[in-house]
Amino acid sequence: MRRDPWLDNVKMVLVTLVVFGHALGLALVSERNVQVYNWLYYFHIPAFVLLSGHLSRNFTWDRRHLTSLLTTVALPYLLFEPALWTFKTALGQREDGPLWLQPHWAMWYLCVLFFWRLASPVLRHRAALPLSLAVGLAGGLIDTQLLCLPRILGLLPFFVLGLHLERRHLAWVRDRFPRPLAVAVLLAIFVWSAHTEEWARAAFLYYDSGYADLGYGAEDGMRIRLAVMAIGLLGTVSALALVPRGRSWFSTLGSATLVVYLFHGFVVRYADAAGWLDGSDAQPDLALAAVAAGSIGLALLLSAPPVSQRLGALVDPVGRWQARSLAWRDGARPLAGQREDGAGDGGRHRPLVDHGSR
Length: 358
What we know:
Elements: H1 5-25, H2 31-54, H3 63-90, H4 108-118, H5 120-123, H6 128-138, H7 149-154, H8 156-164, H9 167-175, H10 179-193, H11 196-199, H12 218-242, H13 257-273, H14 284-303, H15 305-315, H16 317-330
Helix pairs in contact: 1-2, 1-13, 1-14, 2-8, 2-10, 2-12, 3-4, 3-13, 6-8, 10-12, 13-14, 13-15, 15-16
């Protein structure tokens, strides 16, 4: 796939929302902040998963793809999971649970993505669409946190749907879905977000807890999860329809989303420990605006080429080594857009968290 500026814009928007969500979750000080937080989690994780599924369409069980899966997903997880855990422990924010077997904080996505992508060749079968929905609903019957199994199962329908979406389907969302309708849907979800605790629990939006842990039986839990999934899908389509289509300076940042994802946690956690996220009860809207501005600024900073090119060596050390080896062999530096900048593949698309088609 050649680079599509709209997809680059989508990737950058979604990873910025991830940064905002993580920062806001540590800075909740008012009902409005909680409403914004719930609104965000109704659709931004489903959208993240769906796009990752779509950009995993070419994954196969050959040596090249399996090796890339290990080096661009598994290896960063093995490196950054203990790094972030150690950093948080030094800040006095220690979390329980064994390293690697129970992913900590933002590292869960690399873990679940590994298993989703590994299963992609099977999940491309047409029968996987209805089966994934059944699996997603049944995932709430599991209460273990081992390898984020509840999220692997619960969010699977969005990944499979993305896996089955063709470019023409996304083109319809991009070009034909009415933007006024998209705005209306997102506003309706925002209003609905204020009442989440009245008909369910906000924890349903995270897909990481079993129904029993949330105080619901299997039937009620599945009914609520199905409703949350439907809202998430509507919000995903609406959000994608509103993303700018054209190429701009913002599009060029879309190749560095993995850098943003892996490194923002260190900054956000430090900001929390330093008290920078402590909002004012007297001015909650101002605190919300400050967190939003800071999150956007952090995402833009980490994705800026001078920063992302240097951090890319830590995110994908094998790819960086291969690029340098190739350059030395050919007697030239890597070309722009190849592995030297961590965005690579000669301009082909890599997903929010690398799809492994090196």
